[in-house]
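Structure ticket #2291
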Amino acid sequence: MNLSAWLTTRYPAEERFAQLLPRLAVVLLLNVVTLIEIGFYSPPFGPGTLVFLQIMGLAVMYGTYVWAVWRARRVRPSLLLGMKAEVITLVAATIALPIHHGAGTALFGVLAVFLFTRTYVHMAQLVQRASLLLVSSFVLLILIGTVLLLLPRATPADNSIAVLDALFTATSAVCVTGLIVRDTATEFTTFGQTIILILIQLGGLGIIVFGSLFAVLLSGTLSLRHRVSISEAVQSAEGGISNVDQLVRFVVVATLAVEAVGALLLYTLLGTESGSSTAGSGRLFDSVFVSISAFCNAGFSPYTESLGAYRYASAAHLVVVPLIVIGGIGFPVLLNCWQVLIARVRVALARRRGLPRPQFDRLIRLNLHTRLVLGTTAALYVAGTLAVTVGQLTPNIHQALNLNVTANAPQVEPITPANLSGHVLDASFMCVSARTAGFNTMDMTELTPSSRFVLMILMWVGGSPGSTAGGVKTIAVAILALTIWATVTGRSATEAFRRTIPEGLVRRAGVLVMLGFVMVSLTTYCLTITESPRFADKLFESISACSTVGLSMGLTEELTSAGRIVIILAMFAGRVGPLAVFGLITFRHYESVTRYHYPSESVLIG
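Resolution: structure written out below.
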């Protein structure tokens, strides 16, 4: 019997939670000592004092485990085995500290992760509303990130960061938005960029999913309530609650694998592409940074001009674009595609060997969610690329048709195969990036008004459910479009791929789209009060913040303090999801079933 099972029968959730708090507090203090050591140019304490505090912390930490055993009233091997990951890490840190100080302090961080996630699992069992846990998790991560970015070594010695700017940057990183008020490349040190990168990774996957990973690894299972919390976090559309364990494992494995492959490819290409100015360890760090930022749809870049130096380079179009797409279509889709691929391989191998076709593999197919996501994503990409390309050619079209052309109008460069292919590449990248990634390979001022309008639509739609992307989500837009089509054609139900979409999902899609519209409208209204008159740029900024995109027309760095607070709130609401925020305030955790119905009455529409 492992620790979680034994404690479940012996102690209530509140008691288990209370037992973890002392250990968590001590290990957090150990990490505070580490941050004092590496986060200051001139630490307030000498090396001897810091080492003494670490030794005392280790002694107290061992004492908390003795206390936990004593509280159990009797020593059971199962108790120690249940905490084996913590104990092994603690012993390893104790051994490594005098041998290699850096390795020992790093293990303190690993131990903090173990204890925090175990505490989080018990919190998930205590909290009634999963949306409350989701919101509070992101608030906590943002506050921790703000404190870390305020450390002196996070920024150059002669360019410290203000509290509001640190809060803005931490929120943008955790909410994987990419809007910045300070240049990531020049106004943060490598230590500060590493903090931002960690915040992006944690925020992109969601702290709930990370908590689930360690819960699965440490205890081998999840409680029912925690499964509901995770299911809401990743919005799994196939398999229900019983499939969450598999999805969580797949999320982390797929994320690390894709990001590792992306970083390897970028490291290779950044060394050969023109415009590359990094080499060695700097190039490796940049490759990892861009790979994680692209997969998490964050839009942060280690370069001042985002990816402008690689405007037509293969690193941007053959590596970054696929990373953005994979990160934006959602983990349920990736899992379903992986299952179908494995099933097809098994069937092919069985056929080649003359064996009977596996019965179970016949049932594995692309589900409705996957088909809608892939179809909508492809349609938005093709239509968006075409629309932006035409928009960028507007001056040429005007000149050809002699529209809005004056005697003093600047000469328009004629269309050639070379610049036409350049426009197509620009449009292709920007249409993918606008759906919540936030990278740009071209100067945003080069966009024509029509191209900006198309990008605003794509930003508002965003990515797919269960992904690192924001926006109102492709599924919601697809369901409403199918509902409109069903209404126009006289059908009583919303249908897609020979399947009927439940009416409840149609209502939720409508609520999600409406809330997205309200969020953008409210944010834009607030910016019109706090900022100078530039309505189009404010609308662009509002959509970018609410959809956690990160593209900007240059307004972000000019925002007043009030305007920055507005954008911080918009980014946070956009990340946790309009439906989660609205549900936290209004809806109950479970749908209430009424035992009565009022008489119906028609109203006039149109």
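Closing remark: The CA atoms of residues 140 and 191 lie 21 Å apart.
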